[in-house]
Amino acid sequence: MSDDDQTFPVQEQDYPGTTDAMEPRPADEMANYTGRGLLEGKRALITGGDSGIGKATAIAFAKEGADVAIAYLCEDDDARQTANLIEKEGRRAVLLPGDLSVEDQCTEVVRRTVEELGGIDIVVNNIAYQNPVESLGEITTEQWDRTFRTNIYSYFWVTKAALEHMPDGGAIVNSGSINGLRGNKSLIDYSATKGAILAFTYSMAQSLVERRIRVNCVAPGPVWTPLIPATMGGEKAAKFGQQTPMNEAAQPDEIAPSYVFFAAEQLSSYYSGEVLAPIGGETLPG
Hints:
Mean pLDDT: 95
Largest sheet: 7 strands, parallel
Low-confidence stretches: none
Strand order of the largest sheet: 3-2-1-4-5-6-7
Number of strands: 7
Number of helices: 10
Shape: globular
Order of helices and strands: EHEHEHEHEHHEHHHHE
Helix content: 25-40%
Strand content: 5-15%
């Protein structure tokens, strides 16, 4: 492709990235979304809810009537902006900064959610770390461990803690990825964790069926979030999403309704152990 085909300006950020520094800013505020009370009175915990897909999902949940706790690493400005939009909908927002690659912090965010919101009905496991490489030899044990502790250990820790408080009939939605469905040669460790999330989803759906806690997964293709300029940057960020049949990356606002679908019993009461893959027109065999 020529430079004329670039979707985004060349840009880079330090990890974990911020929304304000992105060019263009992502569509992540669900401005054109109208709720209809699908989550009225529910209490949700969203990890990685400060920006990107998590932010859009948090706002959509609020528009549907839910109070939302947002767990995130350190992006205080993004988290505050998201909380303001939740509160604008007349719902409660709880901000929970900290490193969820640590078990104690995962347990603590669940405890704080229950304390602040009075309970927990919905869990969205959404945080992720990635660091592209040219070959397996570039991946250190430290990177491998960090990726797994962030992307799958946190899902285990948060879910385990939340299940002690969730009522029967609750919902868990895990964030997977197209890379967990078909792999990615430059995101080997990341793809491995996303494959693990799929198996975790299937297994937990079976484990919790008697409690009617539905466990599902959203596995998006490329989405324009702060993680992209913060971990790819340069030309990769500029051409991000052009490999899809639709020739563009999704915006977070386009992905969040999938999470509403799985969270709302009215829409998905007979769905558990399912994967919804908004991947820009790509089709996969099998």
